[in-house]
Each structure stands twice: as C-alpha cells, then as structure tokens.
Write a structure and sequence with these properties.
mainly alpha; about 220 residues; MetI-like fold
C-alpha cells in the first residue's frame, strides 16, 4: 500500500470519527423531538431526514454543491462574510457526510426513544426531576442500545460514502480523497492490485461492523 492510499485511509478515519460525533450531537435532539412530538410537522421533518435513504448520492451531492457554491445562497453568504467556501474542502466533506448519514443515526435513536415510553419520564418528573435531568439521567441510559447502533451505523456509512463526497469534495489527494474515491482512482488508472487491497479491506471492515452490530444485539450487550 503506497503513501497516497495510507493518506486516504487516515483521511477517511478522521472524517468518519468527526462526522459520527457531530451526527450524535445533531441527531439526538432531532430524534427526541420526532419520538415525542405530536406536531403536524413530524411527517415532513421525518421525510426530509430520511430523504438520503432513497435519493441518489450524486443528486444530493449536486444540490449541496449548488447551495454551497458561488451562486448558491449559502455560498454567497459565506463570500459576504469573507469565509472559505465549502466545496472541495475537508469541511465540505464533513457537511456532506452529516447530511447523507443523518438518517442512519436519527432512526435508531428515534426507535430507542419511542421504546422507552412515557412512564419512566413521568416517574422522574414525580420525583421533581427537571426535563433536562430526566432526559440525561433516565432517557439517555435507557436508550443506550440506540446510541451504540447509531454510532456504529453512522461511522460505517461515512466510511463507505462515494457519490456525495466525490461531488462535494472532488478527488484531491491528501485533502478530499477518501478511501472510496481512492479505490475508484485505482480502477480508473487500471491498477487493480491496489484496488483489490483497499476494496478487500473495506469488505472485511463492513463484515466486522455488521458482526459486532448483530452479535451485540443478539447477546443484549448494548443494553448492559
């Protein structure tokens, strides 16, 4: 494995780790709201969050590129504030990955929060616990399996991204060239030996992730 491949692996791990942390921070309040709200907006918000599940990654990446580009409203706002544009930067990869992997974090957390029910929270309220105390001392520990599943799926899905990161980040070695894009680069150049090494590693990684996920669920390890 050459130095460019190692750089792509390191960049992918760094991206997936950062995105997973940010997804848990962003996805937790969204999941909590979706699990408990009776608002008419629940359906539309849930549909928007789940949109990356059915939308082609290149379509999502294209519209992110348009929105954050020089003619997009966010891109123009960043120009006005003298901020660096996000396309073809590592920060752009982070934003694109958060949008694309959001349902893989929100849905497990929403299911976990819905499974808790209202009784534990009502019991905490009867003991004069504030909503924040009840959330962190009751809801979060009871939803631990959902958090573990969300973190595993969010990390693994970010590692496996291709279309959306290629559209938003391009293929800049050491800057935006993640593992999946590097495999594509090898194949495009006819270097199937190096492509096999990286692709085989991805297959093994995905298998181990799924083994841990389903094995942990079967043993009930995540709920301890």
């Amino acid at each position: 494995m050459d130095s460019s491949a190692l750089a792509a692996v390191w960049l992918t791990v760094k991206l997936a780790t950062l995105v997973t942390v940010l997804l848990l921070v962003v996805g937790t309040p969204i999941s909590w709201w979706l699990a408990n709200t009776r608002s008419r907006l629940k359906g539309p918000v849930g549909a928007v969050v789940a949109l990356p599940l059915v939308l082609p990654p290149t379509v999502l990446g294209f519209y992110l590129l348009v929105v954050f580009g020089p003619r997009g409203f966010i891109g123009q706002a960043m120009d006005a504030l003298d901020l660096q544009r996000l396309p073809f930067t590592f920060a752009g990869l982070v934003v694109a990955s958060i949008v694309y992997s959001l349902p893989f974090v929100v849905q497990p957390l929403q299911n976990a929060f819905e499974a808790i029910g209202r009784r534990p929270l009502e019991a905490a309220a009867s003991l004069r616990a504030s909503p924040w105390d009840a959330f962190f001392s009751v809801a979060v520990p009871l939803a631990r399996p959902g958090f573990v599943t969300a973190a595993i799926l969010g990390f693994a899905h970010t590692v496996g991204e291709f279309g959306v990161v290629l559209m938003m980040g391009g293929n800049i070695p050491g800057k935006t060239q993640v593992l999946s894009v590097k495999i594509y680069d090898y194949v495009e150049n006819g270097d199937y030996t190096q492509a096999h090494w990286l692709a085989g590693g991805m297959v093994c990684f995905c298998f181990v992730v799924l083994l841990l996920l389903y094995g942990g669920r079967k043993r009930g390890a995540w709920s301890r």
